[in-house]
Amino acid sequence: MGVTSRLRRLDEWLTGWAWASIVANAVLVVTGGVVRLTGSGLGCPTWPRCTDESFTPHGAYNVHSAIEFGNRMLTYVLVAVAVGTFLAAWQSGRPDLRRLALVMALGIPAQAVIGGITVLTDLNPWVVSLHLLCSLAIIGVAMLFLHRITRPAPAQRPRGAVVGLAWATFVSAWAVLYVGTVVTGSGPHAGDAHSARNGLSPLQMSQLHADLVFLFVGLTLGLLFAVLAGGYPRATRNAVVLLLVVEVAQGAVGFVQYFTDLPVVLVGFHMLGAALVSATVTWALIQVREPQAARQPARQPA
Question: How many whole angstroms separate alpha carbon 97 and alpha carbon 145?
């Protein structure tokens, strides 16, 4: 009984760290959007220092430097969450959780380096895209970590047309997310008044983005019909329905922002939606691939 109680508490601890990682990285996506949308991308014009003389905006304090410096300080929160997650995963004694926690932890310095390159290249739009995509990828890994806490990987995963459709939906989601960053790189929100854009046509990139969104939604609808017809568990059906709801909401915000000349508030919500898309499409893929995964912890007491 004592061992069971300890494992249950550890599972709760791991779950809390997993959610902390998901939320913290989603917040980073939104605050990164605030930096960009307020033109504060070069509020701290160098890296790793904020100015040539100081790591803080002391002596050059203004609203833009405060916003950019605040976004940089969020890195310390992410480091704390990553360290806590890794230590909890290590305590679990499970190699799979340790590997996933390590991947999430390594994502934080990768983000810092990409952020530094972003500043040193005067907000090159292609580098800025990588900065966002890295956060979205960490969110996806955190969703898998959350799932693995109570559902270790089965010896054999289901294969077949439905799983293939789930993978196609996942790939289309990432195509939408990536092209969305390209659209932003061609538009007016450069992060600084003097930063260059990627030189692509905003109209053409927006059309490509919309086409991919229609493909994404169509594949998700097909996946929903497939899991309903295939008698998948309720958890799988709910995961696909949740993904579809997020897609529709995200698409609605995207179309409204486009036809209202990209107001910053709506663009900010659209970036939050991108984080939710990464989380929900990963969850849906997991639930389709492992609909009957074991629910009990698969580890030996440490």
Answer: 7
Q: What letters, b where the CB count within 10 A reaches 16 and e where it falls short, cover 15-28? A: eebbebbbebbbbb
C-alpha to C-alpha distance for 200 and 191, rounded to whole angstroms: 17
154 in helix, strand or coil?
A: coil
Burial of residue 4, with CB atoms counted within 10 A of its CB: 0-12 exposed, 13-18 middle, 19 or more buried: exposed
- Checking 259-262 for CB contacts under 8 A at 24+ apart, the result is 262/187, 262/188, 262/189
In this predicted model, what pLDDT tens digit does every residue of 15-27 receive, in sequence order?
Answer: 999 999 999 999 9
267/208 Cα distance (integer angstroms): 18
Tokens of 198: 């990627």
Average pLDDT over all residues of the chain: 85
pLDDT on residue 44: 67
The values of phi and psi at residue 54, to 5°, are -150, 155
Predicted model pTM: 0.87
Helices and strands (DSSP H and E) totals, the chain: 8, 0
Query: What gap in Å lies between CA 263 and CA 265, rounded to an integer?
Result: 6
Q: Which two tokens stand for residue 63?
A: 């609203």
Dihedral sign for Cα atoms in the order 165, 169, 175, 176? positive
Question: Which residues, at least 6 apart from 106, have a Cβ–Cβ distance to it below 8 Å?
Answer: none
d(CA 275, CA 24): 11
Q: 93: part of which helix (H) or strand (E)?
A: none
* Alpha-carbon gap, residue 301 to 287, rounded angstroms: 27
Phi and psi at residue 294, to the nearest 5° = -65, 145
Q: CA 21, CA 29: separation in Å to the nearest integer?
A: 12
DSSP annotation of 153 reads P
